[in-house]
Amino acid sequence: MSGRFAPRPVTRTTVRGGDTAATGSVPRQSTPAPSARTRTWTPPGPLDLALALGPLRRGPADPTFRATPDGAFWRTCRTPAGPGTLRVSAGAGVVEATAWGEGADWLLDELPPLLGSLDDPSAFVPRHRVVADTWRRRPGLRLGRTGLVLESLIASILEQKVTTHEAYRAWRLLIRTYGDPAPGPVDLHITPSPRTWALIPSWEWHRAGVDSKRSVTILRAVRVARRLEEAATMPLEQASARLQLIPGIGPWTAAETLQRSNGAPDAVSVGDYHLPSTVGYALAGNRDADDDAMLELLAPYAGQRHRAARLILLSGRTPPRHAPRMTPGNIAAL
Asked: Fewer CB in a 10 Å sphere around the end CB: N or C, the chain?
């Protein structure tokens, strides 16, 4: 498969009571589920839903995301049209999607880009054996775009300079406390509105283990949420510059956000705690590589450096750990 493509003809219907939802694996709400919209879409080549949607999940207990035993993926978000819940599954080369809420039509319209329809894997040329081997074993890797900046930006800010466990805990507590119940037959939540984020009291950030630097950065971001959302349609360099106008948002946070909101294939997470050593070890046997060394090694993949980094992470070739892991903090106990 190569190049960009337009979505194939789709089938879209309205059903009542969420009848197309996963059976038995997702608890239903006590109240009747609202009307659902459905769509089928045929991707033009191999597609791995777990690889396309996995980066949107913030920990195993993410209140906005769920993978169920029947192979379906559930995602909630606050779309420009309102809150929505999306269920996606695949079989026999066809993707089936069901959506609930005010944002249902928006979610179904944006389904192909979410699953990588705007991604161009033909532009990628492996330059190292480990990358080529993983590329061959993972033909369904597609870089999807959500088209939503703020949800990824806030989650990325929460992940600044802390362990993933701390960041996931903060995300989980804040979404469950201040997010709205998701529409549809699932026990999930929608991320808070910008106004709600702005009204969270300081002691609640503290209880979630979020230090003042990160909470203040989030408050700055939600005050200009509309301007930040415009970055979803900008070229990478311009979008990154727009995000970094906010004090507290640097290259790492911008890259982590745009990888998801824009599906940016060249957004490298410079400043990551583990990525330089992982790239250095996989491509050059250097587990002490820093950001500069990582960028030098990824230079042959200019324009596709994020895809190359994803493939390296998927290869499983990681450096042996000799140094202690980052020690979790405990702000909430102070």
From this structure: C
Tokens 């999930």 appear where? 188
Domain count within the chain: 2
Torsion angle of the four alpha carbons 153, 241, 148, 264, in this order, in degrees rounded to the nearest 10? -100
Q: Any idea which residue has 């493939």 for tokens?
A: 311
Other beta carbons less than 10 A from residue 29's beta carbon = 15
Q: What's the domain range around 246?
A: 149-261
Task: Assign 130 to helix, strand or coil.
Answer: helix
More confident residue, 230 or 20: 230
pLDDT tens-digit series, residues 197-240:
999 999 999 999 999 999 999 999 999 999 999 999 999 999 99
Whether residue 105 contacts residue 37, with contact meaning beta carbons closer than 8 Å, is answered with yes
DSSP secondary structure letter of residue 162: S
**Calpha distance 22→68 (Å, rounded):** 8
- Amino acid sitting at position 87: R
pLDDT at 46: 95
